[in-house]
Specification:
Blueprint lengths: L12 H68 L6 H11 L3 E9 L5 E9 L2 E5 L4 H9 L1 H12 L6 E2 L7 E12 L2 E9 H17 L3 E7 L5 E5 L10 E4 L6 E7 L4 H70 L6 H33 L7 E3 L1 H11 L1 H6 L3 E5 L7 E3 L1 H17 L6 E9 L2 E8 L22 H4 L7 H11 L3 E7 L3 E8 L7
Parallel strand pairs: 12-14
Antiparallel strand pairs: 1-2, 1-6, 2-3, 4-5, 5-6, 7-8, 7-10, 9-10, 11-13, 14-15, 15-17, 16-17
Helix pairs in contact: 1-5, 1-6, 6-7, 7-12, 8-10, 10-12
Length: 533
């Protein structure tokens, strides 16, 4: 038959129920577990990031606090030396001992808010005093005078507050504080600090101490453009994990990153690894579910196919037995007096017995194929003579069913190497199919030819045909196209399986051309005895 695979294209209710049960029992817990693990991963990574961020904050706070302590120490030195006898010498030594301090400006406000100031700097180790400061400095002090005067209020309560003005002129940043008493007639001090030297000479040792070969720290400025001013190890600013502003230096920031893989990379790598593990587990479980479902589905389909197979075989056996019984009983009771009629009945009994024998042979041959016990004996064979013999056995069926059969022979066709019994069975199966599945146009065309290095046998009918989407499966056992017209025709479901096996054993090949409601053509390619003709 055309339809021979343990398969259907509409899933029955039993299979749907099995699928739903597997989905609920196995798949949903897997999905729930995956979602739970993903949420845990996210929360764990967030916790790690938070801990890491807190640690880096503590490191950066320590560095900032250290820089603030340095400035407080400087301010304390001024407080200690407020009453020194030789203030210029103190100022000269202070600048000499602290390279980051390039200038010291002493200033105060008069009663009418006029600014009085003096600038001290070194030139070739000589103290230079400038009492005519530029207008830029005068404007800065004037603009910030309210903040500066508050410093004087703080100092009266024994609290010295240092203010860093958010400006930078010639790489110098003013850091101001008030004094308890006047210093050279001035009440305030502004240390003009070089930011680059301050970072390299004062902060760098602290940064090296903090990193301890575990971190990389860098300082960078954001204006007028972003650039590094110092780093403990080679580090691209894009690799900075966390940054905080330097309290004392406007537009300056401290950045930090881990050596080797930073925490982001470690965290992402760990997350990726866990995701891959969960994905592998999910895929493995889904594959297990699929295999369980497929096996259960096969068992369900097998049970149904067994039932259909028994029903079809029973029909195939019962029909010829009924015909034989009916004609034999008629002849036995002597109800047929006409000798020609008797011959016809004998002929029909013989044909039905042959049909019954063919059905039994199909089942037995299929059993041999399944067990691997079938053996073939190859001899030089006249293919056209074999076809004639097969057609002769179908003459009564052709006559009863009004079939028009033509056999187009090829002159001088080479002999083929064949097992006569099995090849005859293959041809009979194809002719049997052509008879079964023909409808209004009852015509069969058989032809032989030499094609390439093969001998070609073509069997064509004009019946119901096979839809394209089902043609790839018709040689598989027990396959039946889901078509009402087909299931109205009974059969064992083993015919084309046997044909394919027989042709393969002959080292040939079989091709199918079919169109729905237009008919089917089978082409058998067999090995000739003479290969060069």
């Amino acid at each position: 038959m055309y339809w021979q695979k343990l398969k259907t294209y509409t899933i029955p209710e039993a299979e749907k129920r099995v699928g739903i049960i597997l989905l609920i029992v196995l798949l949903l817990p897997i999905l729930a577990f995956t979602v739970f693990e993903l949420s845990r991963l996210n929360s764990n990574e967030q916790m790690i990031q938070e801990i890491y961020s807190n640690q880096l904050d503590a490191v950066l706070f320590s560095v900032n606090q250290y820089s603030n302590d340095v400035l407080n120490q400087w301010a304390n030195e001024f407080s200690i030396n407020e009453e020194a006898e030789n203030i210029p010498i103190f100022l000269q030594q202070f600048i000499d001992y602290n390279p980051a301090v390039k200038e010291i400006i002493l200033f105060s406000f008069s009663e009418n808010n006029e600014i009085k100031s003096e600038k001290y700097s070194l030139d070739n180790n000589e103290l230079i005093i400038d009492k005519s400061l530029d207008s830029t400095w005068q404007n800065i002090v004037f603009q910030e005078q309210e903040v500066i005067k508050k410093q004087a209020e703080f100092i009266k309560n024994n609290y010295q507050k240092i203010e860093v003005f958010p400006i930078e002129r010639d790489s110098l940043v003013p850091m101001t504080f008030a004094l308890k008493s006047e210093f050279e007639g001035m009440g305030f001090v502004a240390l003009m600090v070089n930011t680059q030297i301050f970072i390299e000479d004062i902060l760098a040792p602290k940064l090296q101490e903090v990193t301890r070969d575990k971190f990389i720290m860098t300082s960078f400025v954001t204006k007028p453009d972003k650039r590094q001013t110092y780093f403990t190890d080679s580090l691209n600013l894009d690799e900075v994990t966390l940054s905080r502003p330097l309290w004392l230096l406007p537009d300056h920031y401290l950045g930090i990153a881990m050596k080797g893989n930073n925490i982001d990379k470690i965290s992402k790598a760990r997350t990726k690894q866990n995701l891959y593990i969960m994905l592998f587990i999910d895929v493995f479980l889904l594959l297990a579910i699929y295999l369980v479902y497929r096996n259960i589905r096969k068992e369900i389909v097998l049970a149904r196919v067994k039932s259909e197979f028994v029903s079809n075989v029973s029909h195939e056996i019962r029909t010829p037995l009924a015909m034989i019984s009916m004609f034999a009983e008629t002849l036995l009771e002597g109800r047929v007096k006409n000798e020609d009629k008797k011959v016809t009945y004998y002929k029909m009994i013989t044909d039905e017995a042959l049909r019954l024998n063919g059905t039994v042979n199909k089942i037995l041959n299929f059993s041999k194929i399944e067990s691997g016990k079938q053996r073939f004996e190859f001899f030089p064979t006249d293919l056209q003579l074999m076809v004639d013999t097969c057609l002769q056995s179908y003459q009564s069926q052709f006559s009863i069913n009004n079939f028009e059969v033509s056999f187009n022979k090829k002159p001088n066709l080479p002999l083929v190497s064949a097992d006569k019994q099995s090849l005859s069975e293959a041809i009979n199966n194809l002719i049997d199919n052509a008879i079964k599945y023909s409808k209004e146009r009852r015509e069969i065309i058989i032809s032989t030819a030499k094609k390439g290095k093969f001998v070609l046998l073509t069997i064509q009918d004009f019946g119901i045909g096979i839809p394209t989407e089902y043609q790839k499966d018709i040689f598989n056992r027990f396959y039946r196209v889901p078509n009402h017209d087909i299931h109205d025709t009974k059969g064992t479901g083993l015919g084309l399986t046997l044909v394919k096996h027989i042709i393969d054993a002959h080292k040939g090949k079989i091709e199918l051309n079919s169109a729905l409601n237009k008919g089917t053509t089978f082409k058998l390619y067999l090995q000739p005895i003479e290969t060069d003709i």
